Give the backbone structure.
Amino acid sequence: MRLKFRIILNVKDDVLRDIIVDSSTSLLEFSKIISDQFGFDSSEISTFHISNENWEQLEEIKIFKIDDNDEIMDKAPISNYFVLNGDKMIFVYDFLNYWTFFVELYEIDELSNSDLKFECINSVGHVPKEAPSDIYNKTDEDDDFEQDESLDL
């Protein structure tokens, strides 16, 4: 079975990849595929968060165990987490720069037979050289800034 994903990098301009992945791929392998397809070398720490329809970060799946209750991504296949069209996860790569990706399953192909572990079928945009500093807290008011002429600057 092959799973089709749309993966969007959380930056100002459109940067996305549509990737088909074999359902037996582990989350660890999937993290490396995502990193590679966006031009990263997979050398930084990463994590997945199960998400809901509002893209809220819920349960975390870590790259390695920190405490006994941690779920880790090395053995679990992605099919354990992506069951239905519309299932979502948030992938965070590089905790210093906090590159954030929205990962959504958009098609399940149960009949597909392919020897490829994954395939990028669509690539839009280029990753900026620097990670965004704070794209979560931007408001419309930021765009409407007016300088007070009476202030001595």
In short: The beta strands are 2-9, 16-22, 46-51, 57-62, 71-72, 88-93, 99-109, 118-124. The chain has two helices and eight strands. The mean pLDDT is 85.
